[in-house]
Design brief:
By secondary structure, the chain is mostly helical. Helix content is 70%, strand content 0%. It has four helices and no strands. Helix 1 packs across helix 2, helix 1 packs across helix 3 and helix 2 runs parallel beside helix 4. The termini are far apart.
Amino acid sequence: MDTVYLGVITLLRSALNAEPLKLPEDFDWDKASDLLYRHHLTGLGIQGAALCGVPRMHPTITKMTLQFCQSLKTSRLQMQKLDEVFALFEANNIEYL
């Protein structure tokens, strides 16, 4: 198995089981962060990295934290807009699911 995938699985397993695990020796953080981001798993990846003993100031962890915060901001803005749309539907007696 590719060390990127093995490392990502290790990070996720560590986060989900709340236990530190050993990452592969030649783990490519840049490729892993891209993979985690594409699959919306950045938050779990950060949590797993912390449990595995990776410093919070590691350059890729810093990048992943920024990506995660930007995703949260986007999600929150979308939810606010959705609330506005629902309020408009209700104000105009429009049924919706």
